[in-house]
C-alpha cells in the first residue's frame, strides 16, 4: 500500500534508498496530456527537496518542459521497495547548475559521458509516496486491508 512520505522528516531508509545506485523513470507530459516515460538516472537532495536529471537539450523530455515549469514524476524501484517523487520541473542550462548536477550524478552513479549540449532538469519535489518499507515506525499498521 502506498504511503505518503513526510518530506520534513524523511525516514532514514528513504534517504538511504536515494543514495543507492538504481535507475529510475521520469514521467513528463506531452502537449496532448499523455505521459511520456523514460529511464533516467536521478539524484535527490532531501534538504533542498530537489531531484535532478541530466540529459541532452534536444531530448523529448526537455521539449515537454520548454514552455515553462511542468508537472513531472520520478519513480525508483528495487524489488518491493519503490518511491515516487512528484513536483514541478524546470530546465536549466547554465554551467553552474549543470556542473552541480554532473557532480551529484557522479557521486551516485559514475562520471557521465561528455556532452556539450547537457542540461539539467531540476524538480522541486512537493510530494513523495512509497511503500510501507519506508514507514518510520516499523511497528505501525502495514496497510493491510480488511476484506469487508
Topology, element by element:
Layout: E1 3-4, H1 12-17, E2 24-29, E3 35-40, E4 43-45, E5 50-56, H2 60-63, E6 70-78, E7 81-92, H3 95-108, E8 118-130
Report on the structure:
This protein has helices spanning 12-17, 60-63, 95-108; strands at residues 3-4, 24-29, 35-40, 43-45, 50-56, 70-78, 81-92, 118-130. The chain has 148 residues and is of the alpha+beta class. Strand 6 (70-78) and strand 7 form a beta hairpin. The longest helix is centred in the C-terminal third of the chain and has 14 residues, at 95-108. The protein is globular.
* Number of helical elements: 3
The low-pLDDT segments are 139-148
**Rough outline:** globular
**What class, by secondary structure content?**
alpha+beta
- N-to-C SSE string, H for helix and E for strand: EHEEEEHEEHE
Radius of gyration: 16 Å
Distance between the termini: 17 Å
**Major β-sheet, in short?**
8 strands, antiparallel
Strand content: 35-45%
What do the pLDDT scores average to?
Answer: 90
Q: What is the number of strand segments?
A: 8
Query: Helical amount among residues, as a percent range?
Result: 10-25%
For this entry, give a set of tags:
globular, single chain, disordered C terminus, 148 residues
Q: Could you provide a short overview of the structure?
A:
This protein is α+β, with helices and mostly antiparallel strands. It has helices at 12-17, 60-63, 95-108; strands at 3-4, 24-29, 35-40, 43-45, 50-56, 70-78, 81-92, 118-130.
Amino acid at each position: 500500500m502506498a504511503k505518503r512520505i513526510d518530506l520534513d522528516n524523511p525516514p532514514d531508509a528513504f534517504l538511504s534508498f536515494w543514495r543507492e545506485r538504481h535507475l529510475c523513470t521520469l514521467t513528463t507530459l506531452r502537449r496532448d496530456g499523455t505521459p511520456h516515460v523514460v529511464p533516467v538516472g536521478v539524484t535527490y537532495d532531501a534538504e533542498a527537496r530537489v531531484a535532478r536529471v541530466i540529459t541532452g537539450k534536444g531530448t523529448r523530455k526537455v521539449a515537454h518542459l520548454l514552455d515553462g515549469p511542468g508537472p513531472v514524476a520520478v519513480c525508483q524501484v528495487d524489488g518491493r521497495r519503490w518511491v515516487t517523487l512528484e513536483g514541478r520541473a524546470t530546465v536549466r542550462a547554465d554551467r553552474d547548475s549543470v556542473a552541480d548536477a554532473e557532480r551529484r550524478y557522479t557521486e551516485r552513479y559514475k562520471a557521465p559521458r561528455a556532452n556539450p549540449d547537457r542540461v539539467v532538469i531540476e524538480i522541486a519535489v512537493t510530494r513523495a509516496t512509497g511503500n510501507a518499507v519506508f514507514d518510520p515506525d516499523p511497528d505501525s499498521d502495514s496497510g493491510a486491508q480488511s476484506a469487508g
